[in-house]
């Protein structure tokens, strides 16, 4: 089995690496055409590459059909090896290049929507230090970030650190998120300095959908305040919520870090939520495997720099309405 010998020895030639990338793309996209597009090859080239991989290994990897059906049990095992092999090979290339020429390649970030304001506070100093890198940022759920770290399609994630369980990751806390009631309607809110969860729940609300971790956190704290949230409008997009907020019909609940991005805060009523006063840790997660890939290690190093920590504290200091 030449392929397994090459994998176990840590040596992958260009052809084998490309065929492994075809397999991981197919498993991710679950569609031959989309997988081929992701790999920037034709569908026939991708199919031929996977067939060659099957011949080299001597096992059937993909269930055959008119369209993608799934992987065979042996294919699932090969996929696990392929993901680790590609990660290790890519990390080795990055590490060797960075030793003599500096870090080069793409940093792949996944961030829950409410953590997006944190991302530029780290990507700016990172790109200044590593000028040959590019960055891909995807807005994902916490579950998708976990899957991305597990299958090595992400280098780092921005997510909650103390809510839904995270496994096989190392954590770095960046900020404690607090919650603000936001509305365009003044009236009874104009003289208030804060609002209870019970009072907020009585207003017409637009909130994130229940599959988003932010929504589950809000539900829990509303319950602690003896209230139940019944939003009139739900979306998995914060931009959609903000668009509806500005109609004046609805109010919403946002993390304090996101409120700072609103350009028209002077036209908004922004009130801290109390009874209970709640906060949650938001930060970075990476795989806990050793050695840590060069790109993820370099990003964590930037996050730990005193200058970066100071900038985060200044930008995200406690909010006052």
Structure description:
The chain is an alpha/beta fold. It folds into two domains: 2-95, Orthogonal Bundle (Arc Repressor Mutant, subunit A); 103-321, D-Maltodextrin-Binding Protein, domain 2, CATH 3.40.190.290. The protein is built from 13 helices and ten strands. The strands form two sheets. Strands 1, 2, 3, 4, 5, 8, 9 and 10 form an eight-stranded mixed sheet that branches. The radius of gyration is 23 Å and the shape is globular. It starts with a helix and ends in a 6-residue tail after the last helix.
Topology:
Elements: H1 2-9, H2 14-29, H3 32-39, H4 43-57, H5 73-101, E1 104-111, H6 119-129, E2 132-139, H7 142-150, E3 156-160, E4 169-183, E5 195-196, H8 197-201, E6 206-208, H9 213-224, E7 233-235, H10 238-245, E8 251-255, H11 256-259, E9 269-274, E10 279-287, H12 294-304, H13 306-315
Parallel strand pairs: 1-2, 1-3, 5-9, 6-7
Antiparallel strand pairs: 3-10, 4-8, 4-9, 4-10
Helix pairs in contact: 2-3, 2-4, 2-5, 3-4, 6-12
Count of beta strands: 10
Overall form: globular
CATH arch. level architecture of the largest domain = 3-Layer(aba) Sandwich
Strand content: 15-25%
Rounded mean pLDDT is 87
Instruction: Write down the CATH topology of the largest domain.
Output: D-Maltodextrin-Binding Protein, domain 2
Main beta sheet: strand number and arrangement?
8 strands, mixed
């Amino acid at each position: 089995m030449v392929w397994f010998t090459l994998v176990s020895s840590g040596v992958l030639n260009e052809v084998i690496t490309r065929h492994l990338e075809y397999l991981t793309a197919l498993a991710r996209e679950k569609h031959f055409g989309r997988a081929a597009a992701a790999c920037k090859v034709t569908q026939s080239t991708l199919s031929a590459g996977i067939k060659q991989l099957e011949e080299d290994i001597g096992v059937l990897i993909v269930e055959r059909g008119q369209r993608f059906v799934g992987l065979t049990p042996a294919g699932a095992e090969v996929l696990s090896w392929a993901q680790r092999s590609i990660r290790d090979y890519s990390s080795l290339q990055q590490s060797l290049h960075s030793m003599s020429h500096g870090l080069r390649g793409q940093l792949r970030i996944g961030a829950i929507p409410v953590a997006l304001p944190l991302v530029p506070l780290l990507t700016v100093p990172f790109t200044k230090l590593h000028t040959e890198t590019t960055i891909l940022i995807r807005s994902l759920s916490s579950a998708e970030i976990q899957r991305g770290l597990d299958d090595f399609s992400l280098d780092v994630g921005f997510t909650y650190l103390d809510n839904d369980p995270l496994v096989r990751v190392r954590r770095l806390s960046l900020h404690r998120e607090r919650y603000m009631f936001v509305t365009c309607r003044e009236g009874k809110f104009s003289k208030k300095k804060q609002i209870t969860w019970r009072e907020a729940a009585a207003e017409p609300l637009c909130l994130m959908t229940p599959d988003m971790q932010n929504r589950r956190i809000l539900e829990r704290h509303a319950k602690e305040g003896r209230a139940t949230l019944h939003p009139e409008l739900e979306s998995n997009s914060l931009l959609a919520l903000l668009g509806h907020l500005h109609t004046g019909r609805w109010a919403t609940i946002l993390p304090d870090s996101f409120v700072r991005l609103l350009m028209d805060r002077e036209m908004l009523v922004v009130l801290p939520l109390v009874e209970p006063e709640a906060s949650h840790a938001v930060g970075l997660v990476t795989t806990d495997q050793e050695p840590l890939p060069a790109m993820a290690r370099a990003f964590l190093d930037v996050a730990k720099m005193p200058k970066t920590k100071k900038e985060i504290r200044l930008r995200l200091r406690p909010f006052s309405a």
